[in-house]
Each structure stands twice: as C-alpha cells, then as structure tokens.
Known about the structure:
CATH architecture: 3-Layer(aba) Sandwich
CATH topology: Aminopeptidase
Helix content: 25-40%
Largest sheet: 9 strands, mixed
Distance between the termini: 66 Å
Radius of gyration: 19 Å
Amino acid sequence: MTARTMTAVRKTTAALLADAAPFAIRAERAPDVAARENLLDACFGEDRHARTCQRLRDGRAPAEGLAFSAVRRGKLVGTVRLWHVSAGGVPALVLGPLAVDASCRSLGVGAALMNHALAAAQARGHNAVILRGDPAYYERFGFSVARTSELVLPGPFERERLLAVELREGALMGARGMIAATGAKTRRPRTAKTRAMTAVAA
C-alpha cells in the first residue's frame, strides 16, 4: 500500500468516525459566545435575562473550568454553565442555563452535558449543585427538593422547581436563607440592552 493510499484510508476512517459520533463535549471557548447566546435566545426567548435565576449570573463569571459546549459537525448544539453561589452561607454551585438545539434533542445531548458538568464539578471539589427546573427531568441526575426547602431565590420561583444534588453527603444539611451570587465579577461592561433587560422585574 502506498503512502498516498494509506493517507487516504486514514482520512476516510477519520471522516467516518466523526460522522458516526453524534456530538462531542468540550470546554467552552471564546468563539462559542455568539453561538451560545443565539442558542439561549432560541430556547428561552430574548426575555430570558429577566428570569429569577439570571440574578445569580448578572455580572459574574462562570465557575472556573465549569462551562461546557456540545458540538456536532462543527456547530455548537448545546451549552451548560455552573456558577458560584452561597446557599444561605453554604458554598455551592448553581447550574444553568442548560440548552440544546431543537434538532439535536433526540441525541441525548442534554443528559450528556449534565453528567459531564456534575462529574467535573465533583472532580474540582465542589460539594453541591442547585438549579431551578423540571423535577421529572432532573431527578434522573439525583436532584430533588430534599435540601432546598429552607432556601430562597432572589425573585419569584416555584418551590417544587428549586432542586439540589449533594456531591458530598450532607453538604447542604441545614442550609437556609437566600441563594446569593459569589462568583468572580466580569470585567466586560454590560450593554445597554442587557442593562435594560436586567431592570425588568423578575
């Protein structure tokens, strides 16, 4: 077999493998930002900045090493980030938003992002993750209301949708009070559009 033939075989094999793999999860990169924002707008609407949990993200950077993108054939098709918070004085993370392109929701992208994010958070020594979401979906990842009954968000929320999972047993034992952002502040100034959206009552 000639070198040219071997190269052609390698390229063909690589192409077949890439096509067979439905998506890949990797750390979020700077070029992902625009695609991520477009995906979030498509999934949650442009008024998403007025949601209660956005108060925990406004002006803050995601937790180090805990922002992930799902990519399929060079296109961003999923995103998830985790953020530092104080859960009534107890250090924790808030997860969200989790979003998946409508064309890829049958591929298991959301579940893969969740499992990847939780494993990464645990590997980095974090003890608990909180989110606001559908219990029927998130209970498969260990989330429940068991440790959130005494916690509140900075805005209106449905008590049954405030969920948490402990990555270390007992991490949220006795946690009570307001969930507040504690992550590093971003240096990038907010746009007029973002400031206007943030001013809307959540």
